[in-house]
User: Fold this.
Amino acid sequence: MVADERVGSAGPVIIRLTITEGNELVAQLDTLTLQPHAQITRVYEVPGTKLSIFADALAGGSGSSSVDVLIYGWTE
Assistant:
């Protein structure tokens, strides 16, 4: 997983990754806090094929924030 917050964003953003089965959120995999113009790269071993991603701006900023989240995976 690679996540970044774009230059010019108003403030920090929290990214939540949740393992999902069907329409049910099963377990939170990770929570990431991104600052403007920051990037995070993580590798996970996840026993599933569906992941829900949520992005929430932290309070206090004015304007908008833009993020990119890229997920790469494979099956064996």
About this structure: Residues 2-70 form one domain.
